Amino acid sequence: MSEIQNSGDLRQVKVEKLKELVKAGRDPFKISKYEVTTNSKAIKDNFEEMEGKHVSIAGRIMSKRGQGKVGFYDIQDSDGRIQMFVKKDTIGEEEYNWLKTYDIGDILGVKGEVFRTKMGEISVRAEEVKLLSKSLQTLPEKFHGLKDQDIRYRQRYVDLIVNPEIKDVFIMRNKIVRGIREYLDNEGYLEVETPTLSPIAGGANARPFITHHNTLDIDMYMRIANELFLKRLVVGGLGDGVYEMGKMFRNEGMDTRHNPEYTAMEVYKPYADFNDMMDLTENIVAFVAMKARGTTKINYQGKEIDFTPPWRRVRMQDMVKEYTGIDFDLINTDEEAIKVAKEKHIEITPLMTRGHVISSLFEEFCEEHLEQPTFVTHHPVEISPLAKRNVEDPRLTDRFEAFANTWEIANAFSELNDPIDQRERFEEQVKQKEAGDDEAHMMDNDFVNAIEVGLPPTGGLGIGVDRVIMMLTDQVSIRDIILFPTMKPLE
């Protein structure tokens, strides 16, 4: 039995109290509305103006103590707590006797005068008290609280009540999400909405969730990215740039940085390239850091991360050389690359190429060093099926991934707009899928058709919003910044 569940006896006591209320014509669940004129924070922040004024507040009983004809109740609303001071003589003996039967967790409406007690506590002197909702569960007791992390995620509604500091995280999350929109809107980007369900899972290499549309009798996929739809809109000339922020779904592992559904933002700007997207990335993150924390230098789990632009920019191959000593400017064949991979104990997979080896070595030996914000650029073409080839070295692409705290937080490129090259890369991805790669890209003939109509040179960017929020709120798990994270059912 969880620590916030009750024994049958405790719950039954509350049920009996509710029955007594109903019998007496005081059923709280028949009350549909209660006029609230202010809240706990406003009263405390503006006490000099509020003192002596009559207010109407509402909230949950979090503690109660009384001495005969006088009672003290801590009332918690969405902005904090305030003390209710109540005297039997003021509200009447009948109401006072009913009040004494109310439990911690019950929700009250209180009307009365704002004052300060002899002990210096800002309070509301109750003149009228009304029970608005009866809690049939028992909250975790005051001093131990709700500590079981699993239960906190499963029953966030209780977590928010007994650990009110967690509200600050989600209020800050809201500031960050609004800040991203504000920055892009101010830069002239148009926010759009694209499908969550599609007959093809495209825009990234990932394992999708599959569902079935009964009327059409076809399998459909929850989106793993919205890239291909957004680029269709660029083809259509919708605005000077488009973006979308919303949920993506990937049927993959779960850990402190991965939840099956998560929030991402993707933006596409015609006549721009991946260098412009680097500027956009660091400016967005710096902007929301200032919004949320008031600084671009943040402390995350005891270490300083400086998001002040400009960020470091380094080629993937140069990072591999820096941390392994292997210079891929001197390695030109798949055979040479695979030999090096074996020497470095990298797993060899079917159809592995020089580009795959570079990527594997980077992941194995380099990512762990990327504490400060860094743009890792020029990924191999084999792992970048939607990115434009680099003119100087067509084996590479004009792509970057942004890292901070060793985490990838953004991915961007100069978009591939050559339809012949795009079709060939999709066909290569299909071979990878047929060889057993569940994350390889599907063929999307309509998308190829779209860029045959004509996709202008375009810069595209995707930001992992949840990871940015984790760092800016100093939270160690993605579940701590998602109100209702995915959990395995208890039964």
Describe the protein's architecture and organization.
It is found in: Cytoplasm. GO terms for molecular function: lysine-tRNA ligase activity. The protein has 491 residues and is an alpha+beta fold. It folds into 2 domains: 31-133, Beta Barrel (OB fold (Dihydrolipoamide Acetyltransferase, E2P)), CATH 2.40.50.140; 166-311 and 372-481, BirA Bifunctional Protein, domain 2, CATH 3.30.930. It has helices spanning 8-23, 40-45, 47-50, 88-91, 93-101, 149-154, 156-162, 166-186, 227-235, 274-293, 316-324, 334-343, 354-365, 419-434, 445-454, 465-473; strands spanning 54-67, 70-77, 80-87, 107-116, 122-133, 190-191, 197-198, 210-213, 218-222, 242-249, 261-270, 297-300, 303-306, 312-315, 374-377, 399-404, 407-414, 458-464. The chain is elongated, with a radius of gyration of 29 Å. The model is unreliable at 1-6 (pLDDT under 50).
Provide keyphrases for this structure.
18 strands, alpha+beta, OB fold (Dihydrolipoamide Acetyltransferase, E2P), 491 residues, BirA Bifunctional Protein, domain 2, five-stranded mixed β-barrel, 2 domains, eight-stranded mixed beta sheet
Structural class estimated from helices and strands: alpha+beta
Q: What distance lies between the first and last C-alpha atoms, to the nearest angstrom?
A: 13 Å
Radius of gyration (Å): 29 Å
Overall tally of structural domains: 2
In CATH, what is the homologous superfamily of the largest domain? Bira Bifunctional Protein, Domain 2
Instruction: Identify the CATH class of the largest domain.
Output: Alpha Beta
Task: Report on the biggest sheet.
Answer: 8 strands, mixed
Q: Which strand order does the major sheet show? A: 6-10-11-18-17-16-15-14
CATH architecture of the largest domain: 2-Layer Sandwich
Strand content: 15-25%
The whole-number mean of residue pLDDT values reads: 94
CATH topology of the largest domain: BirA Bifunctional Protein, domain 2
Helix content: 25-40%
Question: Overall 3D geometry?
Answer: elongated
Taking pLDDT < 50 over at least 5 consecutive residues as the criterion, the unreliable ranges are 1-6
- Per DSSP, the total helix count is 16
E-strand count: 18
Subcellular location: Cytoplasm
Cofactor: Mg(2+)
Enzyme class: ligase
Main location: cytoplasm
